[in-house]
Structures are given as structure tokens and as C-alpha cells.
Amino acid sequence: SIWLSFVPDEESSGGGMASLLDSKLYKEQWKGRIALALDEGLASETDVFSVFYGERLPWWVDVTATGNTGHGSRFIDETAVEQLLALTQKALEFRKGQRAILHGENRHTEENCSHAVVAKKKKTLGDVTTLNITTLQAGVQVADTYAYNVVPPVAKCSLDIRISPHVHPSEISTMLDTWCQECSASSTSNKVTWKYLMDNGLQEHATTSTDVRINPWYGVFQTALTEKLNVQMEPQVFPAATDSRFLRALGIRALGFSPMRNCPILLHENDEYIPIPTFLEGIHVYIGLLEALGSHKE
């Protein structure tokens, strides 16, 4: 049997795949019966198709600093903003280090998207942990404006962290704990804390084996591409987050694959498109894959 699922994607919020896997439908009809799931992948700028057996773990983190308040004309000690800025500086230094591992010392000015830059290199985004500061909040609000002469007692930021499978999530947790301790003021009342924000997020890695002795379905997938369709493929770690993570967390084999090669990686870029020949080839490739997978019996 081949089942198709239609759920809201990660851009649209909502429960999506996580809710489906927690539903009565899945538990009564599908649980224990899924041999392999196929999900989205990424385009390839070469002749080689990218096949994703795992992905980085997304952590959205909220950081809050509390400090002394007072009039803006004074030198206030142990303010929330200075503590928060100390932590954001550590975050940016970590980001700089991971970027250097990925890109090397040379800066890439012609490419804005790291997905495209690293496609030309042996390392991929899945090999490193990215961190971005996505919100910054501070200020004493008065009606629809701010009190510009008051030092705020609270300052906040949020971090989008994508943890590579090569790094255990506990290392990131310990790193955040250490940053908070080092950036907190000396007094016990003024400090920096962090909390995990994702209600249905996963806090441990889960990958699909590419060892055909353990996972024969990967062997069928690989054979269909390389022998039946005569194309090359390369297993990789997906750099962002897909619905596959919820499937893998339940022990369900899942591969991320978009049959798009020899075309630019335009994920979430302006004017995202794929060439017509790439689209037509993708249909041919998927037909071949489904024929091979659908006729295999484990």
C-alpha cells in the first residue's frame, strides 16, 4: 500500500505531522505498518541527487535577563540590557566559529544563501550547528510608546539553533547554562535564564540508517536510483527541519528527497522556481522510485 498524507507544513504552524502521528487514525490504521516514508529534500546544483537520512534538531530558545532599573541619567549597575548583550556576544562568537568551520576563512559575497554556498564544498550545513538571534526586546512601555529615560528591568532575546547530529543536544544545553551563569550579575536577583520554547519540539536526534543490512529499504531506494534510473545520489543531513523528524522519532524510516538536480537551490528565496526540464525529470524519477519501492517486500 502507498499512503499520501496532507498536513500543514512547518511554515503554516499548527500540529501538522505531529498531530497526525498522535491521531486515532494513525494509531488504529497505520501504526507499525509504515516501512518507509518519503518527505521533502533539497535541490542539487550538480548531477548528483541529495538524499537526506537525518536533519538538524531545531531548538527555539527564549533568553531573559533581569536587572536594576532607574533613571536614564544615572550609571545603573547590573542592568538587564548589559547582561543580555554579554550573552548575545557569546552567541555571535559561537555562530562565527561554526560559520568558519563551514565556509573557511574566505567570505562569500556573491552568494547570500548558505544552502548554495556549501553545495560547492564537501561540508554541508548539516555538518555544523547554526545559531541566529531572531528577536530582541527591551524597554519600559507606556501606552503606545516607550519611556526613553528609564532603564528597563527586563531584556529578552530569542535564538534559533539548529543542532547538527554530530553534536549531542546536551552539549548545547550545557553551553546555554554556562553562558547564563557567566553573564548573570553578581547579585542573586539579577540574572540571565533561558527556556526551550517548542511545545511539540524534539530534544534528541533521530536518523534513518543508510546501512542496507539494517535498513533494506534504503538499499531498494539506492538501487532504484543508481541502477534502474542510472543517476547518482549522495546521503546527507538536511540543514533545516522537516516533517521527517516526527516520523524518525517514532522509529519510522524516513528519507528526504526532492528529485531536482542541475538547478539552483532557491529555498525560500525571492522568485523561487525550478526549470521545466528538472520538473519533468523529477516526475520520471519518482515514478521509477515508487515502482521499485511499491514492489519490494521486506
From TrEMBL:
Zinc as UniProt keyword: yes
Q: Which cofactor does it need?
A: Zn(2+)
Could you tell me what the cofactor note in this record states?
Binds 2 Zn(2+) ions per subunit.
Instruction: Kindly list the positions annotated as binding Zn(2+) 2.
Output: E11, H268
Cite the entry's keywords alphabetically.
Metal-binding, Zinc
Task: Please state every residue range assigned to the domain named Peptidase M20 dimerisation.
Answer: 56-182
One GO molecular function term of this record is: aminoacylase activity
**Matches recorded under Pfam families:** M20_dimer, Peptidase_M20
Binding annotation for Zn(2+) 1:
E40
Q: Which InterPro entries match?
A: Aminoacylase-1_M20A, Bact_exopeptidase_dim_dom, Peptidase_M20, Peptidase_M20_dimer
Which residues are named in the active-site annotation? E10 (proton acceptor)
The domain of life for this entry's organism is Eukaryota
Instruction: Show the SUPFAM superfamilies listed in the entry.
Output: Bacterial exopeptidase dimerisation domain (SSF55031), Zn-dependent exopeptidases (SSF53187)
What name has this protein been given in UniProt? Answer: Peptidase M20 dimerisation domain-containing protein
